[in-house]
TrEMBL record:
This is Transporter. The keyword Signal applies. Residues 1-29 form the signal peptide. Keywords: Signal.
Amino acid sequence: MRFRRRMCAALSLSFAILTTFSLTGLAHAAPGRTGHPVGILREFPAGMAIPLGQDLRRLPATLGARPDAADDPVLMGWQSNKPEPVTFDECHPDPRAGKGYVVKNRLAACKMTDLRYQRYACPEADCPIIGDASARVTGIFNMQPEQRRAVVQHKFYDMHFRGVPDSIRFGIETTCGAVNPGTAHCDASKTSRDKSIAEWKDEPVDFQVLTLHGEDTPKPADSPRIQAEKRTSYLHTRKLYVVDPGASGRAEALPVDVTLRCDIARKLSSSYVLGSDCVFPVIAKFLLDTKEPATGEAAAFISQAMSNYRSTYPGLSQGDFVPGRFSTNSGIMKPPLTRLYHDTAAQDANRARAERSCVEHWGPGYRDRPDGRTNDCFVYPFDSTVDGANAKPPNTPHGAGYAVQPILSDVSMRFNAAVDRFTIDNHILDGDRYWLLPLN
């Protein structure tokens, strides 16, 4: 999913949840001014503290803009490995950064913002504020299972106004269309809906169903298998606005963009990917639970490789670290894994290299256990990733490496099946990336 705003100079402000805004005093136009009242509308991430009485004209136009979502994914701790829709109750500001948005998974996202409108006595920069209105807006975006369709809802609430009538209208304008050459298009290319404060209070939720059609022109650099998936990108843009009968024109906030990607991969193979046919192209996170009885031994080994790589085999003789670890600490975070599905020969090469390493270190009998059960040669990164054991030549001590260890076959199979289920349910295609997040 990607939400993006145009960046400008950052303003040093503390972050906290903005609940309401009251004018410290309502003034009239300065003597001699003859211009008509004008209005300004601004949208801020919920959680950004704007001082009471702050004149919106004195703030940078893009205050609250944020980096590209693909570079800064914020998936909150309440998501699971199996994607579920996001609800209004779940959406909340990110308390660590006050960005006001969360991505629950590749199929569900939301954004919570504070909308503020000010009316001025005249267009001149020194004209006083004569009216104010504010609202909190929560938008949720849910892809629909086994469809090329999304349900988009916006909720307006916590509305306050002073110096302006409740007949002013808060509105939503959306556009949707192609990103690349081809036939991609949306069934609703442009919509505009607005209601008065009283009407929003009576019916606070706006509901829209978005259907995506067509396909991008195939990229010659892609393999035939990837071209067959018909990966297609769309751009959905939302703009909030206010219509104030007491001021001239329509006041608009900056637009918010969301990139969507759709394909037909589910129809080609149900063992490849499922879920919606459309996703937000963000990097998913697999939750690594070391306390899960059925798979905890495998999860603990991966956690060890991530935190103490030198203690694993082949260790520092084959790299400095293992990739795939997500962390809010940039010094610990490592590059994500990349799914490998179509190239079965590369998967087989990863498996063969891992098993040779197990034999080298534990001997040819590593599969035999004293309790009569058997071990598998468990490897991280997985055989089903571009980053697997055969990713680079042997005896290359720098860069990303791999780790192997004999693990009870039942545990190994259950864990690998859980990873496969995660990539299938989250619609992670060949070449898509994902992280692992150790819960401990």
